[in-house]
């Protein structure tokens, strides 16, 4: 028995107090509560409403022997309650006893003279009311005893005129008796005392007889208008009226009655509304909540607008009216739940209305824009609409309109307005020679020697000799490039130069240029087949070039941009190009005219890979935020007629977006997501509805932003992403069997390539600034050879008396060749064959014909280099072995500022401390963050602390330190900052200059030889580079893109705009001019007195460190492990 069935049974008994029934009803009807039948019966037993025997009978589905008087039906029954109910306590006038007229009636019957006629014995039904006339009549307990016996009457039936029988007299007698009983009851009720009338009305309400309660309250109000309960009775009457419709779940009728009746009593002092406010706090919020829930089902705009007005009116007039729903009522959890629900429903209706209005407006706009030929704006309108309301994209009316708009686009595709011609030379550059430094370990593979592998790494395309690991050639194409080179046959390679927006055809063996075609704008990976070459630009141009000459053959301009390259069909003379949004275009390769436009409906930028033709089906991958969907189209004739709809859509075919193009894997198709999932797809021959299905999936570790590269060969599969993995794929079973996992912490940066039984791959080693290209065994992934290259060069090129050296990021020493032949330099000395995580950032002169290369914060190792090219690796010794910044050299010593606060002199030969270190005040357990020191004089340096989260300091301090070689480092004075010292320190003419940051602006502070402030100049912004000292004064680059020059008294000499690029080194002085070297490769020559431009050279290469001038040449250190050579005259 369910709780609701139990509640109905209890109500039908009529013996349970209405107060208890109301409590049970609230619990049962609360959707958030689970009420057990046994718990309800236990509660009633505890309250004395039922006996244990009665509860047992109810649980067994039996009807307990309980009844009570029901004055509403004017019948008399037996009351067997264990406890008197409230209604039984009402005092009423005693009813007169009925007279027993049985004998009299029998006498009348006996007096009837029978008529001689055939008499038959028949069975008749009892007369109405017979079973209740006598309390002890056996008929009345027939149901309880389980018997269904009908009384029989044995007698003679008069076959003649029935009106001469006794039965009319009996009938009229009973009718008269009932009339007498009715008159008696009317007299009794009409002559009740007022209080009894009021209690009678309350009894009706408590028993759920709300109509009877309304009538009783009306009679009471009319009969006793001045009685003491009259104010409460008026309120109770409204309560009964509302409860009548509320219990019947007539929600709107409840609100209508409330709005009408409560308004009458709002300011009536003769109505005690306090008595019913708790009930109003329940009924009004729930009624409106349920009504608005029903309203949500009607999504017609006019109906929703009408419902919103209606619901808002009820909310304002009833629920928000604190006279009806008090603040305390609103806090009751159940009431609050319904208030929240109705408010949410109203907001939802408002949202529906807004959506439908926006939808109607968008439909009109899209149609008019399409007719006007402004399809790009029409698709933008569609995208904006469906991004805000995703469900609208599925509406047939909108989809049909977009299909129509797509068809209009075919007429808008015209030849692109371009002027493109191939040229035989590289783009002009001031660089005469570029050397690539690489440190090779391992053994060559003679079988692969001479085979060149073109690979894009950190903005440069490098040609690696597969047998030796040497770099045959290098072509810089831009740091932001992600377009890998593409082999054109066995002798040439296609290279995309995003730095200059050029397409290059190079000789594979030497890197020599065959032709260069300036595209003039951003383009994607070229679509290349044996005979065709098509370029797709971001602006939506399709350019078909001659692969042999690089000349333009034909072109087409789409009405919108693109986000991926096109697909060239090898079966049909067609190109399939996905637009930036919504459409897929079919273009003829011969005439470059539009043959078809298919409405796909994808969002802007959601397609990152070209379509792919697979067994006669065109596959299009559409990315979502963290997934990829697959759309399968089936061309009907000659590669066209793709519509009207896809034959199949596989939702979430991969977890994560797919940005690597699809590739064939035997008879299967392989897709790889950016989130590290491989999906093998299978073609279902003969299946018209689901031609493509997932065959197998496998996940591998992939860091966010880390690309993954796949290579396959038969049942072998290699994945290079975060680490390198070798799988054997059981293709018949659809299972991936991981065989080997290597370099799990390294990040792979280029495609891997299977060469015979070897595998070539490129990775960035964890903890190292270098890149390593390797040839490994394909099955074991064991190394055969490795070339470490790339990484920022550690310091300027060293000019060592006719010899020039460069130090790589991992400390390997390279000597520059004396001639200009070749591109690759092998190392002269390797810093370490054991420690592979070395990172050096700068190289300084020790002043004795030797140099030292050091790292940044936390770097313990350093390398010393002599004039012969000999290199020695040394470690800092404790306690001065945890640098907080790059060390500097002073008088043949390393000066190291440590996180523990010590500033110590280090012997470069041993790494140990020389003399006593300087130690400033340090908070216990805190680190000291130091700004790199600057040399002030022969034996004096300046250094400053900075405020940091781990330092515990609230201000920073600048110190002037005297260095007594081999003895100690002592303070010569200090200056506490107003705010926090930032940037670098500079020294000029024995004075020290620092940037003091207070709030959003900085100031340059000048100190004397005892660290006392002597001048201060406020700057119009924050320092992002500097300050630097030059012969003309102090310079600094501000965040306002301004370069400022101050004299040594901190008076401004000049200020000029400079694009806020990072400086590769402090400003240099050459022949009276200032030379600014930017990391983007621009070299600016300025007039030191005015700051005006003298000349600008663009190296077109990323640069670090200061240039070295030697033997009429200028040597620039590259950001990618290269050295660029310029003629000094240029």
From TrEMBL:
Q: What is this protein called?
A: Outer membrane biogenesis protein BamB
Recorded hits in InterPro entries, A to Z, give:
PQQ_b-propeller_rpt (IPR018391), PQQ_rpt_dom (IPR002372), Quinoprotein_ADH-like_sf (IPR011047), TPR-like_helical_dom_sf (IPR011990), TPR_rpt (IPR019734), WD40/YVTN_repeat-like_dom_sf (IPR015943)
Q: Where are the TPR repeats?
A: 194-227
Domain Pyrrolo-quinoline quinone repeat, residue spans: 458-555
Q: Origin organism of this chain?
A: Mariniblastus fucicola
Q: What's in the keyword line of the UniProt record?
A: Membrane, TPR repeat, Transmembrane, Transmembrane helix
Segments traversing the membrane: 169-189
The answer to whether the entry has keyword S-adenosyl-L-methionine is no
